[in-house]
Amino acid sequence: MSFLWAFVVGGSICVVGQLLLDIAKLTPAHVMSSFVVAGAVLDAFDLYDKLVEFAGAGATVPITSFGHSLLHGAMEQADEHGFIGIAIGIFELTSAGIASAILFGFIVAVIFKPKG
Amino acid sequence: MPGFNAKDYKKTSKNYQPKPPYFINALKAFIVGGLICVLGELLSEMYIHWFGFKEKNAGDPTVATLILLSALATGFGVYDKLGQFAGAGSAVPVTGFANSITSAALEHKSEGIVLGVATNLFKLAGSVIVFGVVAAYVLGIIRYTWQVIF
Q1: Chain B residue closest to A115 (CA)?
Q2: Handedness of CA B38, B39, B40, B42 (dihedral sign)
Q3: In terms of CB atoms within 10 Å, which of A42, B3, B54, B89 comes out highest?
Q4: Cα distance from B16 to chain A (closest Cα, Å)?
Q5: ipTM exceeds 0.95
Q6: Tell me: the pLDDT tens digits for B12-28?
Q7: pLDDT at residue number B7
Q8: Cβ pair B141:A86 closer than 8 A
Q9: Single pTM value for the model
């Protein structure tokens, strides 16, 4: 059952992105940037956690979860350290994603030859 | 031509551009994006049951694995073919983020490791991080202020 909801919710988020590309004529970079901001806004109202609970990877795999994790990490540290905690915690939960993206991206780019 | 300015040109040229097949594109994005999320769900179940991760932190190794797969697929030239087919279906998941990093670095490889690969790594993905951090920072300040006052 969890796989079905992951498929439906994750797919639906991608459909929204596709419609923004086709109808609103946004570039992929604009769509991704808007989605990250949307994820952060949804998390600010505690809505994104509910979506994660419901859809699992359907909500954590799309780029919207990046915005959600940024704000989430910031708020966790803010509870402990006040305003400076926002700066301390902002990359706390996204660290694995960013670090591995830099590492693997770099290694692949060094080893492989550009195609096409 | 009288009265043929840039604004009119945009309007007139719009009539001659081919209309994208909205429904087919959306369907492709739905299926491919959904399948990538199912793969994510599979990976996180795997990390929870076999590697002792909790539901809360299973997202970290899952995202890292997806990024590794996507970077490799980009290196082999497979992910870009998928992107042509699926559009947002392959761009919106975190794999698309990794693809944009790897492909930007690969594209500029001929300029060298430092000026080409390392400098251009975040050429496309940079905007995602900048907007994410700025939005999260501003919202964090608003939310924390709200918590302190009420």
Answers
A1: B77
A2: positive
A3: B89
A4: 15
A5: no
A6: 777 777 788 889 999 99
A7: 74
A8: yes
A9: 0.90
